[in-house]
Amino acid sequence: MRHAAVPARRPTTPTQENSVTTSQPQPQAATTAPEATITMPAPDPATTSTPAKVVLITGASSGIGRATAQRLAREGHQVVLGARREDRLIEIAREIEAAGGRADVRRLDVTDRADVTSFAEAAAERHGRIDVIVNNAGIMPLSRLDALQADEWDRMIDVNVRGLLHGIAAALPHFQRQGSGHFITVASIGAHQVVPTGAVYCATKYAAWALTEGLRLELDPSIRVTTVSPGVVESELADSITDEAAREAMRAYRADSIPPSGIADAISYAIGQPPGVDVNELVIRPAKQR
Ligand SMILES: NC(=O)c1ccc[n+]([C@@H]2O[C@H](COP(=O)([O-])OP(=O)(O)OC[C@H]3O[C@@H](n4cnc5c(N)ncnc54)[C@H](OP(=O)(O)O)[C@@H]3O)[C@@H](O)[C@H]2O)c1
Predict the structure, then answer these.
(1) What is the per-residue pLDDT across 210-220, written as a single tens digit (0 to 9) for each?
(2) Ligand 1 within 6 A of 109 CB?
(3) Ligand 1 midpoint to CA 238 (Å)
């Protein structure tokens, strides 16, 4: 587990407001700097009702993942950030730590099952447990089916479906051992409706919805399961569109968008419910989106 410039922090004198329920971080070989001990600022009671949790976030280097990391860290949670652009993750972790939060970073490719497994293993080893995994990494290179962009179809399936499955497989043994845990899938409004140029993307998001619902039905109720389906959100997602016609169509479609903090707020809400309350689905669109 790579840590940002400032190592993971913990409160010196835990109080009811800022106590960390996870076991203390364990030093490990990959830790490059000694642990600093500082007093964490108490989480803002207006925005949190939960004790600190260890929250893994995939696709944390931009957009919704980044906003979720910042929001949850502000509430006092220990966030563990994964994505391929490690430089971005380090920058985000520095911002979080400068604001008094705690973040670990690790380069992560969700298409690689072993990589996702060790992402979870390293977090569990360091913090003693994993409370939440936000399976958020995703790509959206839209195009019409008759454009035959088969490589992009494969990439969407690899990241949006296999990546999600890898996240589930990595966290589930920890949740079962602990007798608690929370899966959060960032699906999409594309899990509920299909649009032209979006057939494959929507298929991956329908799959994400189905996998997450299947988890909910199969798992012990001690493990919570939430699907979050955003509408149009400001992010880098549309940058992955290479098809000129699809890119042009998306420009108009995405003109009305909401900030990623709107989705981070929804994720925070789901995490903040008492253990017996499972927020299964949240759909968050710009008010103007139909
Ligand atoms: N923005 C929207 O309008 C919208 C609407 C509905 C649903 N969503 C969903 O929200 C999620 C987040 O997207 P976003 O809107 O925040 O877009 P974004 O800014 O492009 O973020 C996507 C994230 O996924 C990561 N990622 C991509 N491939 C990866 C891989 N192989 N391994 C690990 N991480 C990978 C990217 O990091 P690296 O490139 O650094 O790896 C990035 O951090 C996606 O699942 C998307 O489908 C977004």
Answers:
(1) 999 999 999 99
(2) yes
(3) 10
